[in-house]
Amino acid sequence: MNLSLEKERMQSAVEVTGALERRIRVQVPAQEVDRQVEDRLRSLGPRAKIKGFRPGKAPISVIRRQYGDQVRQEVVEEVLRTSYANAIQEQGLQPAGSPQIEAESLAPGADLAYTAVVEVYPQIELVSVESHKLERPQVTIGEEDVERVLGQIREQQAHFHAVERPAQSGDRIKMDFEGTIDGEAFSGNRGESVEIELGAGRLLADFENALLGATSGQTLDIDLTFPEDYPSAEVAGKTAVFKVTVHEVAEKHLPELTDELALQAGVTEGGIATLRERIRERLEAQAEQAVRAQIKEKVMDLLLSLHDIPVPSALLEQEVDRLASEMAQRMGLQTQQSNQLPREIFADRAQRRVALGLIVGELIKQEAIQPDPSRVDSVIESLVANHEQPDALAQAYRGNREVMQRIQGIVLEDQVVDLLLEKVDVVDVATSFEELMSRANSAAGEEM
Fold first, then answer.
1. Which helix (H) or strand (E) segment is 85 a member of?
2. Does residue 120 contact residue 253 with C-beta atoms inside 8 Å?
3. Domain boundary at 64, 90, 119, which?
4. Neighbours of 88 (CB within 10 A)
5. How many CB atoms lie within 10 A of CB 248?
6. Residue 119 · residue 314 · CB < 8 Å
7. Are residues 83 and 219 both part of a single domain?
8. Cα dihedral sign for 208, 214, 217, 218?
């Protein structure tokens, strides 16, 4: 049963106790609480089943004695909720989380009085981005970029032939090895018929260098000191002795740039010329996406530098929970295991995300920006493009309110970036494709 609480029968006052913290003292007259209790008890009368009385015939005094304490507790809980909501509205506050209730008086016969401690959203005064300069990478895909990808394809299709000569960089060695530290075995110390391409960086450089010049059938001892920062604490900083037996030295042969190579790479028509075109198109698409991501990051950095705002702790906690859950999923952990991850590692990213969310939200509000339907369609199309049933998945997305809110949020953020790019001074800076992608990979690593 919902209770109505008339605002004129309650009093509220707000005390500012921090940048965002507010203490709201609320007082509801005892007679108002008593009236609510009495109304609810009387509403129980026709339905009350009390031993010794026909249903609905028990006197109010008996009903009060039977149900009074329970009804009063229910009424007090609802008066707390209703009066808090009224006080928030009356004081014009926008809470950023649930309140902490400090009860002063909840006893029968006394005014219901309490203090609600709550954080509110910050007031944001937007600062103009005009007169600020941002550098935007300008990338032209050159022949060297296409050739580099072709080289990678040739490496993937490489084959090896056994040779009777000393091993060189680029050769593949098949070997058995067994290592000891002070005569004792350690974790991962041995392997059989292990194939390693020299120069590929899969082994520590000192180990690979010791294998250069080895021949098929040779047995050699290799002393190897593991780096101090080696991932395995068991061997870090220690010196191991490896006994190695080389079974085979094989020379790498790369396929020629022919139509047959293009076919192996998935190009069924047009041969190597078409493969080159597709590589260029893919690199251009990657570059466009990376440039867009980097200029967006710079816009967000500018917004943060111009707006130093306090962030509600409740929103920070929610964002830390979300980041921990995302990392748990990437690590293959159960969602409930995310609370085992150290929360402090997410603090800075959570602070950034929440602050940007508040600033961007204020921009969207003041500029009255609405999600562009065509952009929403484009995002959905990109999400379902590689699915077996793209139309069905797109329909499912459109029917899921939560998913659509996330997609619209992405679109609105992009629209904000475009709006701000029109106001700042954008300077295009010539950048190589390799440098662009190196930055992109570095940024992705930081997000992890």
1. helix 60-91
2. no
3. 119
4. 21
5. 18
6. yes
7. no
8. negative
- CATH (domain of 171): 3.10.50.40
Question: Which has more confidence, 8 or 98?
Answer: 98
In a domain, 28, yes or no: yes
CA–CA separation, 251 vs 167, rounded Å? 8
Number of domains in the chain: 3
pLDDT at 63: 74
* Token pair for 190: 């041995």
What's the whole-model pTM score?
A: 0.76
Q: Could you say which of 119, 136, 171 is where a domain stops?
A: 119
Beta-strand relationship, 133-138 and 219-225: unpaired
Provide the token pair at 87: 């006080």
- For residue range 186-217, what is the model confidence (pLDDT) as tens digits? 999 999 999 999 999 889 999 999 999 999 99
pLDDT of residue 2: 46
| Single-letter amino acid, residue 44 | L
| Pair (322, 441) in one structural domain | yes
pLDDT of residue 62 exceeding 90: no
**101 half-sphere exposure, CB direction, 13 A CA radius:** 18
Mean predicted confidence (pLDDT) in 92-119: 91
Beta-bridge partners for 175 = 194, 246
Q: Which domain holds residue 247?
A: 160-253
Verify that 194 and 67 share a domain, yes or no: no
Q: Cβ distance 3 to 36 under 8 Å?
A: yes
Mean local confidence (pLDDT), 317-326:
90
Q: Residue 428 belongs to what H/E stretch?
A: strand 425-430
Residues 341 and 416 in one domain: yes
